[in-house]
UniProtKB/TrEMBL annotation:
<keyword id="KW-0472">Membrane</keyword>
<keyword id="KW-1133">Transmembrane helix</keyword>
<feature type="transmembrane region" description="Helical">
    <location>
        <begin position="303"/>
        <end position="322"/>
    </location>
</feature>
<feature type="compositionally biased region" description="Basic and acidic residues">
    <location>
        <begin position="342"/>
        <end position="351"/>
    </location>
</feature>
<dbReference type="InterPro" id="IPR001932">
    <property type="entry name" value="PPM-type_phosphatase-like_dom"/>
</dbReference>
<dbReference type="Pfam" id="PF13672">
    <property type="entry name" value="PP2C_2"/>
</dbReference>
<feature type="region of interest" description="Disordered">
    <location>
        <begin position="327"/>
        <end position="351"/>
    </location>
</feature>
<dbReference type="InterPro" id="IPR015655">
    <property type="entry name" value="PP2C"/>
</dbReference>
<dbReference type="InterPro" id="IPR036457">
    <property type="entry name" value="PPM-type-like_dom_sf"/>
</dbReference>
<protein>
    <submittedName>
        <fullName>Ser/Thr phosphatase</fullName>
    </submittedName>
</protein>
<keyword id="KW-0812">Transmembrane</keyword>
<feature type="transmembrane region" description="Helical">
    <location>
        <begin position="278"/>
        <end position="297"/>
    </location>
</feature>
<feature type="domain" description="PPM-type phosphatase">
    <location>
        <begin position="10"/>
        <end position="244"/>
    </location>
</feature>
<dbReference type="GO" id="GO:0004722">
    <property type="term" value="F:protein serine/threonine phosphatase activity"/>
</dbReference>
Length: 351
């Protein structure tokens, strides 16, 4: 009797109001949706007076999941379209007492052996791989821009009075600006999605220490939330941890590369994703001339056919190698290593 196959993923999800929010309102929301080939996970951090932030965050995640499930096209296209649909849903509800509401949105789509990330705002995605913690996203905020320009240190940004001022969110304009990129996954990878209620209260070095614990995701998220509350819990706290339990093949579509210039308008991203790549034309031309040669020189059709198959296979292999290179985790900032004591690493990242 064959043993049951190991599931590809394991996840834990937790959101908490924190310790300093008045009236106990949690404007964070989280999503974990199991899919046939993986899962869709997301964190939204709402903003706005009264109950507007809570509404914006939940509305965004409801729309995201519904639109993704009903969408067509490749998963990156469906994910970008779902983020745009969530943006419009928030924008259209931002009237009357909800005027001015908005929300950040960070979504992770795991499709077989790949992760695709859609990012708007200052929630963060991290990848723990082989003892190193890679931060996958850059904050869309005023203080983050000052850090990139060298005007603020990471530690100064953490305590700055404008640390919660985001420069990009859902509900601000008709077309959302987002970052969309993918990377291959490996067995043993651990992914973290979190709102700034966690990343703003707990250092990356402390996150590394907690994520390295050999515990299931549902235990790890509780430890992360407890750490944020122990640090004062100044904001709502949300954490999603996803463990990759086994290797899977990469999907057949090209993973979107990381944008070096920050978020782009969704129509520009969709145009790039839907547009025919040069590789498509190369494949069509090779197939055309292979068939033409077999028709015009029938006595050599076996040789011509084999040559065509070899050339087509070579192009596809080259595509896969390129896709893997594009999908590697971004090198910045430098990953935290488990071998470095947390105190030393905290001083290094704060300078």
């Amino acid at each position: 009797m064959r043993a049951p196959a190991t599931p590809p993923l394991s996840s834990g999800i937790l959101t908490d109001v924190g310790r300093q929010r008045r009236l106990g309102v949690n404007q964070d929301a989280a999503l974990a949706l199991e899919l046939p080939q993986g899962g869709l996970y997301a964190v939204a951090d709402g903003m706005g007076g009264h109950a507007a932030g809570e509404l914006a965050a939940n509305l965004a995640l409801d729309t995201l999941s519904q639109h993704y499930l009903s969408g067509r096209g490749t998963p990156p296209v469906r994910l970008a379209e779902a983020v745009q649909a969530a943006n419009l849903a928030v924008l259209r509800h931002a009237v009357g007492e909800y005027a001015g509401m908005g929300t950040t949105l960070l979504a992770l789509l795991v499709d077989r052996g790949a992760a695709i990330i859609a990012h708007v705002g200052d929630s963060r995605a991290y990848l723990l791989r082989e003892g190193e913690l890679h931060r996958l996203t850059d904050d869309h905020s005023w203080v983050a821009e000052q850090v990139r320009l060298g005007n603020l240190s990471e530690e100064e940004a953490r305590h700055h009075q404008w640390r919660s001022v985001v420069s990009n969110a859902l509900g601000g304009e008709e077309r959302v600006r987002l970052e969309l990129f993918g990377l291959p996954l490996r067995a043993g990878d651990r992914l973290l999605l979190c709102s700034d209620g966690l990343s703003g209260a707990v250092t990356d070095a402390a996150l590394l220490e907690l994520l390295l614990r050999p515990q299931p995701p549902e235990v790890v998220v509780r430890s992360l939330v407890n750490a944020a509350n122990d640090a004062g819990g100044p904001d709502n706290i949300t954490a999603i941890v996803v463990d990759v339990l086994r290797d899977q093949r990469l999907p057949h579509y090209a993973l979107p590369p990381r944008q070096v210039d920050g978020p782009l308008y969704v129509d520009m991203l969709l145009s790039a994703q839907r547009g025919s790549s040069p590789l498509t034309y190369v494949l069509l031309i090779l197939a055309y001339f292979t068939l033409l040669g077999m028709i015009l020189v029938p006595e050599q059709r076996t040789v011509i056919g084999l040559l065509g198959v070899v050339l087509l296979g070579g192009v596809l292999v080259a595509q896969r190698v390129t896709r893997a290179r594009l999908g590697r985790p971004p090198p910045r900032p430098a990953p935290l290593r488990a071998a470095v004591p947390p105190e030393r690493e905290a001083r290094k990242t704060s300078g």
